[in-house]
Amino acid sequence: MKVHHQLRTFEKILAEYDHKLPLHRFLISYYKQNKQMGSSDRRWASRYLYSYFRLGNALSDLPLVERLAIADFLCNPTLSLVISEYLPSLVSEIEQFLEVKLNHIKEIYKDFNIEQVFPFTETLSATIDKTAFLRSFFIQPDLFIRVKEAHLLLVKNMLADHDVPVNEISPVTLSVSNGTKLDQIISDQHLYHIQDLSSQQTSAFFEPHVYEYWWDCCAASGGKSLLLHDLQPDINLLVSDVRESSLINLEERFRLAGIKKYQKKVLDLLQNNDQVLHDFSFDGILLDAPCTGSGTWGRTPEMLTSFNAQKVSYFNNLQKTIAGNVIKYLKPGKPLIYMTCSVFKAENEDVVAYLLENYPLKLEKMELIKGYNHKADSMFAARLIRQTD
Ligand SMILES: C[S@@+](CC[C@H](N)C(=O)[O-])C[C@H]1O[C@@H](n2cnc3c(N)ncnc32)[C@H](O)[C@@H]1O
């Protein structure tokens, strides 16, 4: 029977997945090595695996196949063979709202507790609505793109020509459903950047002024620098990261965006960089810190079961050390923009509290940017102003 064929494939991939790579990258290489799988086999395997991981640690005592059927029912508005076979009583409910579906599951499985989906709720940043956050794990996030206002119509027309439904979030932000093959639809890469909605919204914290000198000190491939540059093209910019490979990607993205005026350095901010930076003082520092990424796990639900909670304190230490090492290069009266894509208090408000206690900084504002209400990631941003020592 076809359902057994689908299940065998699902179980085989699940058994082979060792969590060393993100699931989507693992699946790309798995499908490459298993060319006998047709496109329908691949589509069903991916759907089942993602649905399965979205259940996190909930109902972990149930048999695998039953958990898969529950997860697939909660995550999708369309039926699958697994739902029809193992949850026949819920087939007619497949198009219901998530809240109704969750109630059905609770009625049948008395032990179902949504708090076990993301088993770290005690450590969340204070302003997070726990119920909405937990429910968001059953909904696949959208794909967000940033476009120049002048290109908006052109990009919308290209998407419309391919019958891609588009949400216009603002004159510079569009969303499409995840999995949309944008590179095949919009061949001119100048026209858009892929960037999550919450990441785009961090730019409200930057406030750069003309001719200022800014440092994006954990720049990676330059997502935040590109935002900064869009806000104020007439700035001087230093970009740095510990990973040279990321800065090579950044150079290509800057080239496509026509950004030529910047300096680039490979810097490990856990070290003393006075020899390289002694002449530098900045009008603004972007610190998009290395973090657990817990605000993005809606896209990588495999993290729900593989994350080791001890890593939170590792990142907290890293963040405090890196922030402490960059503040001295900031001019008095100027902002440090501290950001993470984490939902953990220890990486957000606690780091801000530590910085306020130990350095001459004043908090102007901070916010947990709640992507979970918008099919987006969640991010944290704080704007801290350097005081005179
Ligand atoms: C969240 S990512 C930055 C994302 C980037 N700002 C963007 O918008 O695309 C954090 C970056 O911090 C860098 N990083 C980690 N440890 C570092 C260190 N000790 N010194 C400098 N950069 C570091 C990582 O290589 C990574 O690129």
Automatic annotation (TrEMBL):
The keyword Isomerase does not apply. PROSITE patterns: SAM_MT_RSMB_NOP. S-adenosyl-L-methionine binds at D241, D268, D288. SUPFAM superfamilies: S-adenosyl-L-methionine-dependent methyltransferases. Residues 120-389 form the SAM-dependent MTase RsmB/NOP-type domain. Pfam families: Methyltr_RsmB-F. The keyword Methyltransferase applies. Keywords: Methyltransferase, RNA-binding, S-adenosyl-L-methionine, Transferase. GO terms for molecular function: methyltransferase activity. One of its GO terms (biological process) is methylation. The active site is at C341 (nucleophile). InterPro entries: MeTrfase_RsmB-F_NOP2_cat, MeTrfase_RsmB-F_NOP2_dom, RCMT, SAM-dependent_MTases_sf. PANTHER family: 28S RRNA (CYTOSINE(4447)-C(5))-METHYLTRANSFERASE-RELATED, NOP2 YEAST -RELATED NOL1/NOP2/FMU SUN DOMAIN-CONTAINING. Belongs to the class I-like SAM-binding methyltransferase superfamily. RsmB/NOP family. This is RsmB/NOP family class I SAM-dependent RNA methyltransferase.
